[in-house]
Amino acid sequence: MRLSRAFLPTLKETPAEAQIVSHRLMLRAGMIRQTAAGIYAWLPLGWRALQKVEQIVREEQDRAGAQEILMPTIQSADLWRQSGRYDAYGPEMLRIRDRHDREMLFGPTNEEVVTEIFRQFAKSYRDLPRNLYHIQWKFRDEVRPRFGVMRGREFLMKDAYSFDLTKEGAEHSYRQMFLAYLRTFARMGLKAIPMRADTGPIGGDLSHEFIILAETGESQVFVSQDLLDMDPLAEAPDYDADLAAAVGRWTSHYAATDEMHDPVAWEKLEASKRVSARGIEVGHIFYFGTKYSKPMELTVQAADGSTVHPEMGSYGIGVSRLVGAIIEANHDEAGIKWPDAVAPFRAAVLNLKNGDAACDALCDTIYRALGDEAVYDDRADRAGVKFADADLMGHPWQVIVGPRGAAANRVELKRRMTGERHEVSPEDALAKIKG
Ligand code: 5CA
Predict the structure, then answer these.
(1) What separation in Å is there between the alpha carbon of 284 and the centre of ligand 1?
(2) C-alpha angle 67-71-73 in degrees, rounded to nearest 5
(3) CATH class, range 21-335
(4) Of all residues in the chain, what percent carry a pLDDT higher than 90?
């Protein structure tokens, strides 16, 4: 994308309404624009980052055996009356009436809709297990929308729903998602720690939140250093295997949110291993048995001919929140430092002297070779402006092309994450960026 033609509206001033760094940087880098309280439009840079995050989530869901669908945002109130949640959900639910005065709502989550869809299809134990997920906008009329996309009212969520014949089967599905989540967040360069959690309005008796440590996090958490030292990508799970041991390696260490904290168990931990910090919840998984299948009359026939209600779980990831969380974890005073895997663009080509024939020609060649994954700063601005914007937008690589270098067929290659700079040939720069 050529910056001279791009819609990447960066801001010089720090927006006063933004209290945390990710929100400030997302506004300053022109990633998002608020259109109403807690509701955001995603501009090109933000939209690309969101899609990168979404794609990693998708790949890891698919790998774990879940199947993607797309359910609507608008749901019927009747379905929620069947589960008994319509009245219980309270003022967070945006309730709507259509022209026939039928009660509708903008979905805050999808247990009811997916149970209804599955009910029409599932007849026997052969239709189980299944795991269906979608990546769709949700609306929750939060009392205090804040921190930009971190706590929005409209936000993008990945939500998966598993259906199993037995409790043991449901536990296996739960473990598949547990391990898939560890991989998902690790691929984004995040260390997300699974912690035993409260189940809230989703319900059920087994639940983990996945939390990344950050000063600006909304939850207080207590974790053993041992967990922070573990590497989720060290072993790729075989999702068909017995997963209890793999999950057990994570759940055997102390990790809890405020609500689940046990001071007695905490005190037993070696003092040097106790980490108490703030955290951001990026995912939340639940096992809730027949909480929805029973009242909504979802049944299948078991092998022995008896009728059973499938055992269910649901598994959420805050896709739009993750974009903010990744920035909280990766930035400096100058701006964002995107991890490679989620960077909206891999590289920026900075032309320090537009109109200089050698500069223009070399920039053009490099930009063409990088294709869609690069931005080309071909604006008629001062070099200082280009440096500042490239640092702000946080592209992992900057290829800096000045007139003296261009004449000698040399460029400067800067790695945003570390700040390292090297003078190299254009070929070497391309090889590094593509590698
Ligand atoms: N149905 C279940 C699991 S699919 C569910 O709704 N779980 S949840 O309520 O925990 O939400 C899942 C994830 O969505 C959370 O872990 C969080 O990362 C994200 N999320 C929740 N509320 C918001 C919000 N207001 N703004 C941005 N992300 C949010």
Answers:
(1) 7
(2) 145
(3) alpha beta
(4) 94
Phi/psi region, residue 49 (left: phi>0; alpha: psi -120 to 50; beta: rest), is alpha
pLDDT in tens, 119-172: 999 999 999 999 999 999 999 999 999 999 999 999 999 999 999 999 999 999
Query: Which residues line the pocket of ligand 1, CB cutoff 6 A?
Result: 109, 140, 142, 151-152, 155, 157, 159, 202, 281-284, 286, 314-316, 318, 320-321
Q: Which residues are CB-neighbours of 274 under 8 A, at least 6 positions away?
A: 222, 224, 225, 266
pTM over 0.85: yes
Do 345-434 and 21-335 fall under one CATH topology?
no
Q: What was the pLDDT predicted at 256?
A: 93
Please enumerate in sequence order all residues whose Cβ is within 8 A of that of 332, keeping only pairs 6 or more positions apart, or say none: none
Ligand 1 centroid – CA 399 distance (Å): 38
Give Cβ neighbours of residue 388 (< 8 Å, ≥ 6 apart).
334
Return the residue whose CA atom lies nearest to atom 27 of ligand 1: 151
In tens, the pLDDT along 356-367 reads 999 999 999 999
CA–centroid distance, 333 to ligand 1, in Å, is 30
CA angle (62, 182, 238) in 5-degree steps = 55
- Would the CA dihedral through 403, 405, 411, 417 be positive or negative? negative
User: Which of the following CATH numbers is that of domain 345-434: 3.60.20.30, 3.40.50.800, 3.40.47.10, 3.90.79.10?
Assistant: 3.40.50.800
Domain locations in the chain as residue ranges: 21-335, 345-434
Residue 80 exposed, middle or buried by CB count within 10 Å (0-12, 13-18, 19+) = buried
Asked whether the beta carbons of 170 and 162 are under 8 A apart, the reply is yes
